[in-house]
Amino acid sequence: MPKSAFPAAVSGLVLASVRQPGKKTLCDIFITDGKVAQIVPSGPQAKFPPASRVVDLDERYVIPGLWDEHVHMTQWALAAGRIDLSGASSAREAAAVVRSRLEASTTAESGGDPAGGRTLVGVGFRDAVWADTPSLELLDGATAGVPTALISHDLHCVWLNSAAAARYRVAVNADGLLREEPAFELTRELGRLPDEVVDAMVRDAGRAAAARGIVGIVDFEMVWNRDTWLRRIAAGFDSHRVDAGVYPQDLDRAMGEGMTTGQVIPEGGGLLRVGPLKVLIDGSLNTRTAYCVDPYPHGGRGLLTVSEADLQDRLVKARASGFVPAVHAIGDGANEVALNAFAAAGIRGRIEHAQFVRRQDFARFGELGITASVQPAHALDDRDAADSNWAGRTERAFPLRSLLDAGATLALGSDAPVAPLEPWTAMSAATTRARQDGREPWHLEQALTREEALAASSRGRRRINVGDPADVVVLDADPLAASDAEFAAMPVAATLVAGQFTHRGV
Q: What is the rounded CA–CA span in Å between residue 139 and residue 137?
């Protein structure tokens, strides 16, 4: 394997005739050794080494490269080939979508096995807003004995038929549902396809992400992920950087190998680093397992899967081992527990999601130096579920403005496949609190400015400066001046990582 997936050009690269957002003046950016070496006014007076490669970008706009701070990359890649149930408005409609797919497959195969001996997998259902409920009987009736597993959009629930329950030797009740850890275990099992098959899907997903301006992701796939990415990079993956997260069950192994958060993996060609330590302490809104101070309408407060004392112990261990903890906390009760544990352990870190926060806890994010790793598109995907389950309290749900004003560092992402790995969708949701579908904004008081959303999507980089890594996105429009519709679907002309094009449409 080469030492770097992005060998630097001998004399460098010039991105000529570009603008920074909000600026009228043109500049040329000189890149060498993977970094921004010079930024000078465009014109004949600009001097660069004679052998430099010059790319005229015709007065386009350049911004720092975009990161998705929370991805499950294998699950996102697999979702492209699974049945999309995101549009189903009821359990019966979801079952009908599955039945229709099976009937179409059976017709195409002239009576053969419509699933080809594999489990039929669907993704994206949202039963929190359904008037009816999933059931084993309903899915059995739609699937005619073909093993079928449907994964909820939040990944915290799987709806099985009897054939799939038998195939994977899991026990389900009359609702056919697995929740939380049993659901995670089955989801991992459903992804056990040949490496070459999954890796090809990931390569495609990586190229698509680069075409939207992504230069890096934090991958929280629930496996020992370092070696998976080393294999992919060795086979030619070069679309973006990866910070590979570690889970508590693998922390001792990681410590034994001298791994720490932020460490560059030498064999990773400059693309791979060790990510945070991910700790899940509650469930999700859709599955009604997010741990809340007040009960849900159906009763119960959700699940706290790690006690405050145990979480504190894990954070202390993270501090001693050089890992930055990333604590999954969605409900307001879970966020309170996470903040208490961070304070007691004396460590900074991240809270993943922070979807529902008590008013008195906002200031603690800033006081404790916590990064809120948030997914703005979820506010629009789950607004009806929030209005139903957190009625009268949603002014503090998906509270981006409140978190930022309280001093939290915001880091935007998608949680793909929960939402698409599409940074402009996330930033549009953060700035408008609405989709481009005519529905009114939801709690617009929690919106960010575009400058804030861009910074939260590029690890705090508000503009390109000399000395920065040459992770650059080239846009056809000024992101600070474009209309809301254009911003949401921003045309990306090119993406560079370490000064090398990973996407080029110009």
A: 6
pLDDT at 312: 98
Count Cβ neighbours within 10 Å for each residue of 250-275 and write b for 16 or more, e otherwise: bbeebbeeebebeeebeebbbbbbbb
**CB atoms < 10 A from the CB of 375, how many?**
27
Give the type of residue at 109.
Answer: E
Q: Average the pLDDT over each of 40-44, 162-166, 455-459 and give the range with the smallest value.
A: 40-44
Report residue 490 as tokens. 């921003």
CA 92 to chain centre: 29
Which stretch of DSSP H or E encloses residue 38? Answer: strand 35-41
Q: Determine which of 108-122, 355-369, 402-416, 417-431 has the lowest per-residue pLDDT on average.
A: 108-122
Q: From CA 128, how far away is CA 473, in angstroms rounded? A: 38
The amino acid sitting at 74 is: T
End-to-end Cα, the chain, rounded Å: 30
Closest to 394 measured CA to CA, from 379, 404, 381, 409: 379
- What number of CA atoms fall less than 13 Å from residue 44's CA on the CB side? 0
The 3-state DSSP class for residue 144 equals coil
| Residue ranges with strand state E in 195-239 | 214-219
Q: Are strands 500-504 and 35-41 parallel, antiparallel or unpaired?
A: unpaired
177: Cα within 13 Å, side-chain hemisphere:
15
User: Which pair of tokens denotes residue 400?
Assistant: 């981006």
* Mean pLDDT, rounded, for 462-481: 97
Q: Which of 247, 327, 330 is nearest to 284 (CA)?
A: 330
